[in-house]
Amino acid sequence: MCGIVGYTGKESVTDQLLDALELLEYRGYDSAGLATLNGETGKVKLRKCAGRVKDLRKICRNDKKISTCGIGHTRWATHGGVSDENAHPHRSGDVLLVHNGIIENYEELKDHFMLHKDLKSQTDTEVVAAVLNRFYQGNPHEAICRTIKYLKGTFALVVMFSDQPDILYAIRNVSPIVAAYNGDGTMLASDVVALGAAAEKYMVVPEYMILELHKDEIKLFDLDGKQCEPEFMDIDWDTTRGGKGSYPFYMEKEIMEQPDALKATMESRIVEGKIDLTADAIPDEFLRDCNRICVIACGTAMHAGLVAKVLVQSKFNMHMNVEYASEFMYGNPVLDEKTLVLAISQSGETIDTLEALKYARRQGAKSVAIINVKGSSIARESDYVMYTAAGPEIAVASTKAYTTQLVALFLLVGRMAKVRGVFDEAAEKEYLENLVEAPAKMLEVLEQKNEIHKIAREMLDAKDAFMIGRGLDYSILLEGALKLKEVSYIHTEAYASGELKHGTIALITENTPVVATVTQTNLKDKELSNIREVQSRGASVVLFVKESFDLADAEYADVFALPAMADEFMVFPASVALQLLAYYVSMDKGLDVDKPRNLAKVVTVE
Ligand code: F6R
Q1: Range of the domain at 155
Q2: For residue 494, which of 598, 574, 591, 586 has the smallest C-alpha distance?
C-alpha cells in the first residue's frame, strides 16, 4: 500500500516522478505528493494534495521543472484522514521523507522525543521525519541508523536531505523498495513497474541495508557502514511499457490478455507432453511424501486455493485446508514437516500472507509460493517458488493473476498426481490436453463479450445480488462475487446453493438478481433444482451453463453458454465470463473500474 518513487539524474525530476506515480497509483490513491531538490540552488519544492496524481500534476503545471533529484508518493491512508497535510512527503528541518508501511509505536515516539508541538499532520510518517531530523547532524547514515533502532512496524523509507544534493537514501523492513539504472539517472520505487522504460535490470533493496542513490551509481551499505555489492535481476515485463493500449481500462486489457498469460505460464512447464517442474526446482519427493496441504492467501488468491482444494481432494486421499492468511495463526493450525504450505499471491508482498508463511515455516512446514512478482518478499521467504507469467497487473481487481494462479495450481496438482502414482501416462496426457485447451476456450468467451455486456446492463440498478452453485461452481462464484462487489459496489453474496434454504433464501424477493453457474455434471440436477427454488420466490436468474448441458424447458432471465471442457477445467471459461460481467456493470455505472473506492492493489498492512 502506498507507492514510493525517487529519481536522481540528468532529466527534470518532476515529470519522471509524476509519470512513475501514475504507474504506482494502484497501490493507493487517496493523495499524492512530491518533493524536489535543486542541486545548484539548494532549493526544496514540496507539492502535495488530497486526490489523485492528476490533481498533483495540475498543481505542478506551472512549476519551473529544473530540479533533477526528488521523491514522490501516492497514499492509501492508514494514520490520519485523507487531507493535504497528511499527504507525503513530510518535511522536518532538513529531512524530506516518504514512507510505505506502519510505524506501530509512533505515539510512544511522539512522547519520547517530545515532538507534539512540531507536528502538522496526524501521520506516523511525520513522526519518523521528526526523529530523523533530531538525529541529523550532516551524517545521513548515522541519522538513519539511530532512527530505525526506535521504529517498531513495517517501513520503506526514502529520505532526501536538503543539504545532500543529488543523493537519495532508503531503508526498509518488510515493505518493498526496488532500484535501477534508467538511462539518464537512477530510480527507486515500491514496484518494478515504475522504474522507467530504460531500466533493464533492477535490484531489491535488502531489509535493514542503506541504499544510496546517486545520479550515476547505486550503492548499498550494511548498518556498520560496510559497502556491499547489489544483486541485479533482469526486468522481463515488456508489457509494463504498453499502458492501456486501446482499452478504456486496464481491467479490460488484463481480462483480454488471459489466453496469452495462461499459455506463457504453461509454456516452460510442459515438456514433451509431460508436466515438468524442473525449472521451479520443486523436488518430487516433497510432492510425493507430504500428507497435508494448507493454502494461505487472501482475497482472489485464496479463491484460487479453493479451486485447488476441489482438485486435490478429488485425486488424493489427503486433507487440504484453505485459510485466510489473516486468520491462519489464530486457528493454531496443525503443521509439521509433512505439511505442504502453498502461499498464493500476485504481488508477493501481502503482509498477511507473508506473516502466515513465516509462522508456518517456524512450525517446520515446507512451502511452495505461487507468485507473479519476481523477487518479492513472499517469493524470497518460501522454500520453492512457481512464478506465474501474468505480467504486470495494474487494475486493482485481479483477473489474469487469478487464472494464471489456477494454471500453476493445475500443473502442481498434476505433477503430484504423477509422482504419487494417481496418474499413469495416459491420464497425465488427457489432463494436459484439457489444460492446454483452456486459453482457446477462454478466447471463445472473450469473443462473445458483447453478449455478456448485454447481461450486465440488466444488473445496473441492483442493490444486492446473489451467486449460487455447488462444489467447484461455488468456488468459482466466490471469486465472481468478489469481482462484482469490488468494482460495481453491488452487494453480492456467493452462496452454496444447497445452503440457501437454511436461512438466506429469506432475502430473495421479486427480481433479486441471482447469477448461477452450472458446469459440473454430477451437480447439475441439484443445482437446477436450487435455481427453481429461487425463481419460485421471484428471483431473476442469469445462468452461465456448460454448453453441452440440456436445460429442458426452464426459463431464465438470461442464459450464456460456456464452451464445454472436462468438468474440472470449466473454471477457466466460467471465470472469464464472470470477470466480464463485473467489468461491464462497473463501466456502465460510470465507475472508476481500475481504482475502486477504498482499495489498493498491494496490501502491506495487517
Ligand atoms: C481482488 C484482489 C484481492 C487480492 C488480495 C491478495 O480482486 O485483487 O483480493 O487478491 O488482496 O493480493 P495478492 O495476490 O497480491 O497477495
Answers
A1: 3-234
A2: 574
Residue 239 has what pLDDT? 45
Place of cell 544534493: 165
Our answer on whether the CB atom of 372 is closer than 6 Å to any ligand 1 atom is no
**Residue where one domain finishes, among candidates 414, 445, 476:** 445
Is 196 domain-assigned? yes
pTM of the model: 0.89
Question: How much is the CA Rg of the chain, to the nearest whole Å?
Answer: 25
Structural domain includes residue 243: no
**Ligand 1 atom with least separation from CA of 483:** 7
- Within 10 angstroms of residue 588's Cβ, the number of other Cβ atoms is 14
Which tens digits make up the pLDDT trace of 418-452?
999 999 999 999 999 999 999 999 999 999 999 99
**Most ligand 1 atoms within 8 A of CB, residue of 296, 328, 345 to mutate:** 345
Of the residues 307, 398, 595, which should be mutated to test ligand 1's pocket, given the most ligand atoms within 8 Å of the CB?
398
pLDDT at 238 over 70: no
| CA 581 – CA 557 distance, rounded (Å) | 15
Same domain for 392 and 278: yes
Residues 459, 427 share a domain: no
Do residue 8 and residue 96 come from a single domain?
A: yes
Ligand 1, atom 7, residue with closest C-alpha: 397
Q: Confirm or reject: Cβ of 300 under 6 Å from ligand 1.
A: yes
Query: Is the pLDDT at 224 greater than 60, yes or no?
Result: yes
Residue nearest to atom 3 of ligand 1 (CA): 299
Do residues 472 and 534 share a domain?
yes
349 C-alpha to ligand 1 centroid (Å): 10
Predicted confidence (pLDDT) per residue in 337-360, tens digit: 999 999 999 999 999 999 999 999
List the CATH number of the domain containing 387: 3.40.50.10490
Q: How far is CA 513 from CA 455, 539, 543, 561, in A?
A: 11, 6, 11, 18
Domain-located, residue 429 = yes
- Residues known to be catalytic: 2, 601
User: What's the 142 CA to ligand 1 centre distance in angstroms?
Assistant: 38
Dist. CA 159 → ligand 1 center (Å): 29
- The reply to whether 50 and 95 lie within a common domain is yes
Query: What are the grid coordinates assigned to 476, written together?
Result: 468459482
Classify residue 603: in a domain, yes or no. Answer: no
The CATH number of residue 223's host domain is 3.60.20.10
Among 276, 152, 170, which residue's Cα sits nearest to residue 220?
A: 170
How much of the chain exceeds pLDDT 70, in percent? 99
